[in-house]
Amino acid sequence: MAINTNVAEASIRERRLNAITGYNGSVKDLACRTTGGCSIHNRERNFAQASSCSSGCAQTLLTGIVDAAVVNHAPIGCLGDSLYQNIAYHYGQFHRNWAYSNINVLSTNMGEPDTVFGGAERLRDGIREAHRRFAPKAIFITTSCASGIIGDDIQGVIDELKDEITIPVVPVHCEGFRSKVWATGFDAAFHAILTRIVKPPRTKRPELVNIINFRGSARAYITEIFGRIGLKPSFVVPFSTVAELEGMSEAGASLTICGTLGSYLGTALEEQYGVPYVKSSPPHGSAGTDAWLQGLGRAVGKELEVEQLIADEKRAVQGELAEVRARLAGATAVIGMGPGFSLSYLRVLDELGIKVLYGASWHYDQHYDHGAQPAIVTELAAGEKDIPFGVGEQQNFEIANLLRTLKPDLYFSRHPGSSVWAAKQGIVTVPVMDEYTAFGYRGLVNFGWRIVDALANRRFVNSLSRHVRLPYKEWWYEQDPYHFLSEEAA
Amino acid sequence: MSDVVEQIRNVCALGALQSVAAIERAIPIIHAGPGCGQKLWSALSSGNGFQGSGYAGGHSVPCSNSTENEIVFGGEEKLRETIENSLKVMDGDFFVVLTGCTADIVGDDTGDVVRQFKNDGVPIVHVETGGFKGSNYFGQELLWEAIIDQFLEEPLGVEPGLVNIWSVLPYQDPFWAGTLNTIGRLLESIGLTPNLIYGPGQGVASVRRIPSAQFNLLLTPWLGLKTVTSLEERFGTPFFHYPALPVGATETGRFLRAVAGYAGIAMETVEATINREESLYYYYMERAADLFFETRFKPGHFVTIADSGFALGLSRFLVNDLGLIPEAQFITDNVPNEHRERIEAEFTDSEAGIASPVIFTTDGGTIREVIRGLKFRERPLILGSTWDKVITRELQGYPLSISLPVSDRLVLNRSYAGYDGGLTLVEDIYTVILNSFQ
Prior knowledge:
The structure holds two protein chains of two kinds. Chain A contains 21 helices and 13 strands.
């Protein structure tokens, strides 16, 4: 179904993409049961640990836009994640040699009276203050459970101020309670950007490639290799300007580092402005990078140039890849990441010669916005091996149980608050925090050497595990890791 | 006037879950939306000194992760299930159920659900901390009202010398663990037995011990006043109130004399302790004096941006022990109006010596605008949060992050309290100054 930017908000992933948060099976089972119109029913948990919500994902993207401002219409705690967003922002500024500044965000600081009388007055103040303080090019209003339940009319307040504040002021519907899938917040942010920021193309810039990513650490390398084939990357959304976002419609193609992230924006730019969205598996590892670059080549009509680029880049690391594979042979691993990464890192680790015992994903989209199953799933399922695979919204107790049973050499994780628990169990843990960790052929090799280093000295995790314990009773380790999942509805 | 908040320096009432996490082997169970635990932990712990998940914090906190279903049909059944299964899975000594906005707005009867477990002998309490109700300081007071009402029992008797410490707010103050340890050692040095409640080696036994204390020591200007008053009403335990966190020799000596006077400890004991500590303290201060007087690196006036008790302690130290001049003091802990006049007076009393404007605000924009309006003739020293480094750099000042968010430092057992804490603060300030150009 096409993305509809004529409605106020993006529909949640559970409805739009049949996203699930409870599943235990294997990659082949997952692939087979979610093709040809089939879908899997979610299995609910009757015990869970603190997850994450949409507003965090929405604000992660929006606070990164350098000349916009975010007004969070919420009690003050809903901006708890702004501290980490500011850390990430400073880190990005440092790596770009930019001036040091803070993210432009404020809270309307909702209190008890607002839950009774409504928070419109407060929202008006927030919009005015954001406008006065930051002189932004656009203001995004992120909503909260509190503002959503009491039913504050966000658009009504915006409309009242439209003569006073003439920049785009855009509601972002990211109430935490609406979805178990925090990535729904990406869609909420992109929906706001698509409906009020992106402009129809004034001209076409076939050399321009939108790269939908988070922090853009590999931009120098990407700019260099794309330059070789006459293309110019534009990294969105964090660290871009409102003007750069306005012009996304003019690009020759869109790519993403993470299918979970890019689906909504990439698909909508294709449907509405004819910007081809590369729907390949993500550029993690060798096969992923092949698919990503070849997809780009097809989209912009540079297949031959891309093949040459791939050959050059692969040749440069051939010897080192063989060496690192030899060093890692026989190692075993478990993965726990969001679906944009966990599935493709199954293949990354295979390319490095590591045997994956189990893959866990923080949710799973049974199809993307363009209608097809994630390419990586189709590709993995076509292989010989099948890998046990489960879905849970970062449920640490399930992972701890799995790790105790499977005893892998390595645990690979993405998202704060997950890796450390495996380390406490004495398992060598390699966090994949940077989205470009195993990007490209060089990235794959570098990642391999990082793992070699991690395995070469296990003393910290060994000592740690002898001195701390996890907060679980022995009873729990005797249960199936997915003990608390309900039966799948027929 | 608008009370929007730019650059948050504290969180909502549900932030009290981190106070539960600060009690060894205590387990918070939150009945809230899916993002609350992550956001509050991120702000209070990982984004603030990188304090970690601890035993059962961060993404390991049991949570109902309430969604549409619990909003429309009520979340009591989901909560019951979450508690029941938490008790099977989680290995803890004490459980505290805290609610978020969703449960409190739709009106779940959390108390009723929790009482059924309590009646079965589970060590569990509940507290309604919907984020819209107030800040995490307010949440802290709600938490202790709940523990006092629902968990503490009549003591068998009073333990002479036992003192409960009510001081810094765990996690909100990234130095809390080191500071509590320091305060405990100061009390031990004059013969008292501290009950620190939070941190390593304490746990639920120290919570149960609260009613048997000889007195409660309230070592903040206002936070916890309700708690010690409730303890006095319920158990007849008196309290001694000392508003400033003692930093450095002058204030720590004053603090020890005051506590000893209250507790009826012989003055000779106290003076002997103070003499011993001061001679060591001034051995190091003498060494530092060369740097102060033989180089050009003395900061200009200083600004503090912190919770009231910490700002007061830092300010007194910088004035009395380092001889610096205060320019402005920003108090960021949502001080209720009835306490403001008294706190302002503390900044201008004879011990503090030099009066300076005291501004109560939690809004970074207000802080920035006031600071921009100040006239500094030399590079100012700005003790605040990592947010404030931007304005400090703009002024070419010296920034040291000491209040939430402290995201540019790892904090483990560091503390600025007591004699050693004063020396540590001097080291840190001069590390910033000397690093600024080399």
